[in-house]
Amino acid sequence: MSSICKRCRPGEDSDADKIKAFERLDFDDKVVDTVPNGRMRVTAETSQFNCDLITAQPFRRKLFGSILQSLRMDNVFKDVTGTTDRLVDWIESNISLPLTTVLAEKPFGQGAKSSAWRVYVNRDAIKTMGEGVELVRAVEETGLIYMYGENYCYSNTSQEMARLYKKGELGEFRYGEGEYVHPMSADEMNSISPGVNHWRNWLPATYYSTHALAPLMYITDTRPVKANGFVMTLCEDDPVVHRIARCSDAASMIAVRMDNGAVVKLLQGSLRGHGVWVRVHGSQGAMENLRHGDRNSVWFRRENYHESDEKPEDTVIEAQFPPEHKNAAESGHGGGDYFMNYNFAEAIRTGQPPYWDVYRGVAASIVGIQAYRSALADGSTFEIPDFRIESVRRQYRDDHWSPDPTCRKPGDPWPSVLGEIQPEPEALAYARKIWKSKGYNGD
User: Fold this and answer.
1) What's the Cα-to-Cα distance from 70 to each of 36, 113, 155, 163, rounded to whole Å?
2) Which of 11, 60, 164, 203 has the fewest C-beta atoms lying within 10 Å of its C-beta?
3) pLDDT of residue 388
4) Where are the domains of the chain?
5) Are 195 and 443 in contact (CB under 8 A)?
6) What does the alpha-carbon distance between residue 443 and residue 201 come to, in Å, rounded to a whole number?
7) Cα dihedral angle (165, 283, 366, 87), rounded to 10 degrees?
């Protein structure tokens, strides 16, 4: 048996002292969690960090407006968006706010430079390359804490694989696979995507790739440098298609070259066969989270040919959390939700950027943008620029190529590789019934 935190990584102390330090903290910040489907996803994760939790459905504008006012953010955002309604629409399409006050994200770049907010984003950090430039610059200029809130890299199995890799059990990272396959019924999809222009209804199939990529980046501490994207369109024989307001595609496969020369294959979207899988091949071994049986375990195989006399054998390691992180097991995404909040609060406490800082968050998000460009160019290779370098950022500061149909301009792509897609009248009528049952009465 193995415990991911009982055996600390080289150079790290136990988290027990950090937890004790948290208990002495007195956060002034509120916790705002926009949960469209109404699930209280972060209660266990935040309660021990002395943070208040407010849950709100984004389309309940009166409640959300009062939350903004309590955070003293309402006027700041109104200056940019014009009205609270437009703000809510923008946040619904661009940002989710667990455990935070807000720092910066398009179009809040200018306001961020004079606002003492911290930010924690748990979806794609950016929508365009130009936004990435603005976001990185805003964080650099303010010196404030930014964390990209990716949860799957902090699941129990991902953390166990990170421990094994950093211990040197696999040798050098050569190949990886990340899969985030998440089909839904039409009722479930509609319940979390209220409105024709909700981002889930138009986001291109390559854009939601961070759940597949982030665990591999975290486990191996590598960054993406090139991407090739391929998209699978929706199928007419899928009954879900005829009951949702979607105008994008079903799924995508992205081939990514990492900065150490390794190759990664990402699969994401609404294909049938639900699962979140991570596989890593090194120069001396391989591992992946179990697809069958106890899915809180990791399969590991080290193959020695000339290094020692040991014969190759398969080992199954149970991924566990230590007593000081007992609440992690109760949180969502294999403990990932808990550790997102823990690491963000730790960054605030210490003043040190978290692992998922603005640079990694933007890099992971750029993969989806560039992979969509690739898919529209028949799989051609597109670079993932390093926005840590200002001279590189300058090349992309005016790149606002966007698939968002609400702000479409000449030269922008449609959300589908097939071009413009309009929801069927019957599908739209079905979706609106679900939206209305959840309290949303808009278009």
Assistant:
1) 21, 21, 32, 41
2) 11
3) 97
4) 2-148, 155-322+364-437
5) yes
6) 12
7) -20
The one-character DSSP state at 281 is: E
Tracing tokens 């950027």 back to the chain, one arrives at 353
pLDDT band at 105 (very low <50, low <70, confident <90, very high): very low
CA distances 240 to 65, 235, 273, Å, are 34, 10, 15
Cα(398)–Cα(418) distance, integer angstroms: 26
Most confident range (mean pLDDT) of 113-117, 121-125, 282-286 is 282-286
Pairing mode, strands 173-181 and 275-282: antiparallel
The C-alpha angle with vertex 156 and arms to 152 and 157, in degrees rounded to 5, equals 80
Distance in angstroms (rounded) separating the CA atoms of residues 46 and 340: 10
How far apart (Å, rounded) are the C-alpha atoms in residues 272 and 388? 38
Please tell me what DSSP assigns to residue 401: -
Q: Tokens 């990492």 correspond to what residue? A: 258
Q: 164-193 in b/e burial notation, b at 16+ Cβ within 10 A?
A: bbbeebbbebbebbbbbbebbebeebbbbb
pLDDT digits (tens, 9 = 90+) for 260-294: 999 999 999 999 999 999 999 999 999 999 999 88
Q: Is the pTM of this model over 0.70?
A: yes
- Report residue 98 as tokens: 């667990």
Could you list the beta-strand ranges (E) of 149-270.
173-181, 224-232, 251-258, 263-269
- Tell me, letter by letter, the H, E, C secondary structure of 14-60: CCHHHHHHHHCCCCCCEEEEECCCCCCCCHHHHHCCCCEEEEECCCC
Distances (CA, A) of 30 to 21, 72, 128, 142, 344: 19, 11, 29, 21, 13
Rounded to an integer, the average pLDDT of 328-350 is: 76
Cα distance between residue 405 and residue 414, in whole Å: 7
Mark out the alpha helices in 71-223 (DSSP H runs).
74-81, 84-94, 109-112, 129-142, 156-166, 186-191, 199-202, 210-220
Cis status of the peptide bond prior to 107, with omega within 30 of 0 = yes
Q: What is the pLDDT of residues 173-200, one digit of tens each?
A: 999 999 999 999 999 999 989 999 988 9
Q: How many helices (H) and strands (E) does the chain have?
A: 15, 14
Mapping DSSP to helix (H, G, I), strand (E, B) and coil, where does residue 297 land?
strand
Coil, strand, or helix at residue 272?
coil
Number of residues that make up the chain: 443
Q: Does domain 155-322+364-437 have CATH number 3.90.1150.10?
A: no
